[in-house]
Specification:
- The protein is an all-alpha fold and 59 residues long.
- 32% of the residues lie in helices and 0% in strands.
- The chain has one domain.
Length: 59
C-alpha cells in the first residue's frame, strides 16, 4: 500500500501547525521520473527546488 498525496498533505499541514512552531522548510525526496510517486511527493508543495546530477540520464 502506498503513501498517498492526501496523507502527505496531512503530514505537512500537521508540521505547519505544531505548537512548537512551524519549520521554515520541509524537504521531501521524490523518485525520478514523472509518475505517481513524483506526483504524490509534490502534492503539498508550494515551491520546489530541483537538485540533480550532470548525468545525461537524470536530465
Amino acid at each position: 500500500m502506498g503513501f498517498g498525496g492526501k496523507a502527505l498533505e496531512w503530514l505537512v499541514d500537521a508540521l505547519k501547525t505544531r505548537p512548537e512552531g512551524s519549520p521554515d522548510f520541509i524537504f521531501i525526496d521524490c523518485p525520478a521520473g514523472i509518475d505517481a510517486g513524483f506526483i504524490t511527493a509534490i502534492t503539498p508543495a508550494n515551491e520546489a527546488v530541483l537538485v540533480t546530477t550532470p548525468d545525461i540520464t537524470t536530465l
